[in-house]
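Per-record layout

source: Paenibacillus contaminans
name: Carbohydrate ABC transporter permease
length: 279
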Amino acid sequence: MKIKVNRYIQYIFLILFGIIIVYPLIWLFLASFKTNEEIFGVANSFLPANFSWRAYIDGWKGSGQFTYGDFFINTFKLVIPTVLFTVASSILVGYGFARFKFPFKNILFAIMISTLMLPNAVIIIPRYILFKKLGWLDSYYPFIVPAIFACYPFFVFLMVQFFRGLPKDLDESAHLDGCNSFKILTKILLPLCKPAVFSVALFQFIWTWNDFFNSLIFINSIKKYTLMLGLRMSLDAQAAVNWDQIMAMAIVTIVPSIVLFFFSQKYFVEGIATTGLKG
C-alpha cells in the first residue's frame, strides 16, 4: 500500500511539473488565436474570446515579396543537406576512431574532443574570415561543407562511444565470412546503430533548424532567409508589431521539430541511454 501511495505521489508530481514546463507553449498556441488588444489587454484571459485563424493567414504572407513558404523552403535547403552529411561523416569518422589503429590516433581524438570546449564566440570571427575568402558568404556552404568533413565533434564522439559499445566479435566473424571493412560497417554495425544515428540526426536537425546567430552572420539576402531570420524580420518590418501573427508563425516554425521528435523519440531515448556503454 505504501509503495502505491509513493507511486501516486510521483505521478502527481510529474504531471504538475510537466504542466509547468508545457504551459508557455500552450499559452503561445492560444495567444496565436487572439488579437493584439486581447493579448495585452487588462482583462487578459487564458483562452481567446474568439478562435480565429486570421493571424496564421496574414502571418504566412510575411512582409514584402517573400512569404513564409519561401522561408520554409530555404530552411529545408539548409537543414536537410546539413543533417544528411553530418550523419554520414560522423558515422565514418566515428567508425575509424572506434575500430581502426593508426598513427597519432589518441592525439587526434584528444584534439577533436578538445574542440568541444571552444565557445562559438571564439571561432565565429576566424570562420567568417575564412568563409569570406572562400566566397561562401550569403550562401548555405558555411553550414553544409563543415558537415561533409565531420566538423561537429559532439556527433563524432557520440558515434565513437556507440561503436565501442558493440562487441568486436561481430567484426571478426564478418571478416571471416569475407566482408571488408566497409561491408562490416554497412551490413553489420550500421543496422545496430539506429539509435545513435537517429540521435545525431535529431540533434542536428533541431540545432540547425533553430539556429539564428550563425544564419544572421553568414546569410545576408532576404531571398535566402531561414525561418528564424524571417521571424526576426517580421518584428522589424512594421512600427506596430502584430504579435498575434508573430506567435502564429512561431507555432508554425516549431511544428516540424516537434513532429520529428515524437516520431523518433523511441530511437532517440535508446541512443542517449546506450551511448557511452562499452561491451
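summary: The chain has 14 helices and no strands. The mean pLDDT is 87.
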